[in-house]
Amino acid sequence: MKQRSILAISETKELLKKIRKELKDDYEVITFNNFLDGLDMLRESDFDILLLDENLTWFTFAEAMRKLKGIGKDIVTIALISEENDEMLNDVREGEIYNYVVKPFTLRDINRIIIPALNNLELLKEKRDLERKLSDSEESEEIVGQHAKVKELKQIIEKVADSDLTVLVNGENGVGKELVAKEIYKKSHRRKKNFVTINCASISSSLIESELFGYEKGAFPGAVAQKKGIIEEADGGTLFLDQIGGMDLKSQAKLLRVIEYGELRRVGGSRTIKVDVRFVAATNEDLEDAVKKGTFRKDLYHRLTAFPIEVAPLRDRKEDIPLLANYFLNKIVLDLHKEMIVLSGEAMKYLLEYQYPGNIRELKNIIERMVILANNKVIDVEDLPLEIKMKSDTIENRSITGIGPLKEILERDVYELAEVERIVIASALQKTRWNKQETAKLLGIGRTTLYEKIRKYDLDRRIIKKDDSYDEEDYGDEE
């Protein structure tokens, strides 16, 4: 292959012909008019750029990209679209596609996108390497915590692990439901076989059946070869069904048969296939309510809830936050080959007061972000993300610049509207780190109005010139 190679996939043969003609002098170009065939080619060979046309019979951009990401290749995808409408652009965004080109296009049009994309490829490879490092570290993750609820969770896992009971793990997003499933797997007699995961909510109802049960050659257009489903791939091991509430009723019925009888049929097939799989499911939904609404089968619900496990949200086990924060901190520092970093006591106080709507996953992401951006060996309050400082309940050490300590403000009686307005504006300015545009949005006023209020209450003299006129660059137009 030439140094730069392009894979183009479209069901429109004329478009592929045009792509070959336009790009063949500058790139090595290989084209396919079937997405699944193109996917097989990508598994076998490396490409720099993927040109992916909107005309894919069985896949949206988002669905196609989920398939592509599963291959794990470093490639930059560019969408080829006919019209920049909201629906199409939303599909491009959901698929996390690098950029798009509107058809018809010229070589100049497409090079305008490809050249920066090639420059971006090295960044993508660096990001992929970092993700692999973090993914490898996750393989050795354990359930961390000393709270009574965590100790109880570990005891339950020990008891259920070596059986073949179907388990349902309940809990909010980010609490570590998959980690619980992996612990069950690692402590079971199936640990030498596969642990396979599928997110039932991320795959459309038209595709999940073929993903779970596989399909026979010719079962539907594009099924050019027989394919095993992930249930067969998990044979002898454990299958983790994340977000099981997102599965459609037809697939639920077939799944129930596999759980109860250990047998399945591929899509388009007539042969019954025997499998030996341990099922662990997870949900953040109220499945009992889904049964009442008719969106989840009652018989499957009862089969899954024979052994339910509840994972507590992080806000209910806050005493574990220091343990978790330092656990993630040490792992991430090691994975990124950075010098040892510590969290200050004041920073930890803010971390303890935050509510963590994203639970343990959010805490890990916060620590990771701070480690990457850290310039010193101590992570202090000023290094915390803005959402932590804005939503923290800690007030003892907080002060509003130009107004005074927050604790004193809250303790005194304030009846003048002007004083209340002054406090609110000053607080908003501080929360946005004096970003005037963001402050105006936060307060729901125009920037002109904001600057007038700042001047009126003497909150920031830096925007006032010596002749008492507004600084034109900062002032701007009212939104």
Return the CATH architecture of the largest domain.
Answer: 3-Layer(aba) Sandwich
Structural class: alpha/beta
Secondary structure tally, helices: 21
How many strand units? Answer: 18
Strand order of the largest sheet: 2-1-3-4-5
Largest sheet: 5 strands, parallel
Q: What is the global morphology?
A: globular
Terminal residue distance: 53 Å
Average pLDDT over all residues: 83
Q: Helical proportion?
A: 40-55%
CATH topology of the largest domain: Rossmann fold
**Cα Rg:** 28 Å
CATH class of the largest domain: Alpha Beta
What is the count of distinct domains?
Answer: 4
- What proportion of the residues form beta strands (DSSP E)? 5-15%
The parts where pLDDT drops under 50 for at least 5 residues are 134-139, 393-397, 461-479
Short description:
This protein is an alpha/beta fold and 479 residues long. The chain contains 21 helices and 18 strands. The protein has helices at residues 13-23, 35-44, 61-71, 86-94, 107-139, 148-161, 177-186, 205-213, 230-233, 249-261, 287-293, 298-304, 321-335, 345-353, 359-373, 386-391, 406-411, 417-431, 436-443, 447-456, 472-475; strands at residues 5-9, 28-32, 49-53, 76-81, 99-102, 167-170, 195-199, 214-215, 227-228, 238-242, 263-264, 273-274, 278-283, 308-310, 342-343, 378-379, 399-400, 404-405.
